[in-house]
Amino acid sequence: MVCLAGALAVGTLVAVSYLAKDVTVVVDGRPMAVRGFAGSVRDVLDEAGVQLSSGDVVRPGTEDEVADGSRIEVRRARPLVLTLDGRTTKHLVTSTNVGDALAELDISPAAGKISAPRDEAVPLSGMSLTVYTRRKVYVVAGATRVASSTTARTVREVLRRNRITPNDGYAVSPPLGSFPKDGTVITVTPLRTTPIQPDVLRLNWAALATCLSGGDPLAYNPDGPYYGMYQFSLPVWKAVDGMGLPTAWPVEEQTYRAQLLYQQVEGKWRGPWPSCGDRLLT
């Protein structure tokens, strides 16, 4: 009888051992071996002490049956506060690093400027991330036309990167502090706050320009150097609130600045235009 009881016990142990399953549970890329009698994925996770939270991804599904040799993958959800091109949204991601999290949200790895390294870990507690994508914007300032691929956060930053500094009183649209979306056209327009006196308007500005430069708004004389129709030096151009180079602006703007100069010197044209100033009187 003793021998029979022993045989039954051994047989039972063998049967129980046969029913046990070896399952691999992988949590966020880290594997663990679990041996037990669980029938479903959820049961295996309970035996392994893996607690699930909202947003966690489990493959196969928690109600699926497991077999010996099964592999269960768990990717824990992480809260991510994303500010993309100035717009903030909240997400749950299961990726464990910044680069994969961006890919999970369908944001190109070549997005542009990112506030954290792509290989930085996304902790379970979550993180905040700021991304500025690379956008195509256009700058129009007088005759200057610039197409710029940029990650700039503001219109001001776009202009600074293109070495365009609007003078006080110049109108910039959109406003300097606004966000430049893809396709934005930024215009810089000089405001003509000083009126030109009627007797100055009646002078022969075309004759002066013809004498100085052949009337060419793009004229350049390296001797000064001098620029544009009225052969401004850069100090004189800046003295009449000109921005950039005179040759970057159209005929009307160059003429307005020349008329301002005439008013500033109180009609003493021999100072700025000693060789051609008398043409104003023709």
Mean pLDDT: 89
Query: Largest beta sheet: what is the strand line-up?
Result: 2-1-4-3
Whole-number tally of structural domains: 4
Content of β-strand: 25-35%
Distance between termini? 139 Å
Topology, please?
Blueprint: H1 2-19, E1 21-27, E2 30-36, H2 41-48, E3 57-59, E4 71-75, E5 78-84, E6 87-93, H3 98-104, E7 112-114, E8 127-133, E9 135-141, E10 144-150, H4 155-161, E11 171-173, E12 185-189, H5 198-201, H6 205-213, E13 220-221, E14 226-227, H7 234-239, H8 251-264
Parallel strand pairs: 1-4, 5-8, 9-12
Antiparallel strand pairs: 1-2, 3-4, 5-6, 7-8, 9-10, 11-12, 13-14
Brief summary:
The protein is an alpha+beta fold. 26% of the residues lie in helices and 26% in strands.
Give your account of this protein's structure.
This protein is of the alpha+beta class and about 280 residues long. It has 4 domains: about 20-75, Ubiquitin-like (UB roll), CATH 3.10.20; about 80-135, Ubiquitin-like (UB roll) (Roll); about 135-190, Ubiquitin-like (UB roll), CATH 3.10.20; about 200-280, Lysozyme (Orthogonal Bundle), CATH 1.10.530. The protein contains 8 helices and 14 strands. The strands form 4 sheets. The chain has a 4-stranded mixed β-sheet with strand order 2-1-4-3, covered by helices on one side. The longest helix is centred in the first third of the chain and has 18 residues, at about 1-20. The N and C termini lie far apart (about 140 Å). Mean pLDDT is about 90; it is low at about 5-15. This is Transglycosylase-like protein with SLT domain. Keywords: Hydrolase. GO terms for molecular function: hydrolase activity. Pfam families: DUF348, Transglycosylas. It comes from Nonomuraea polychroma.
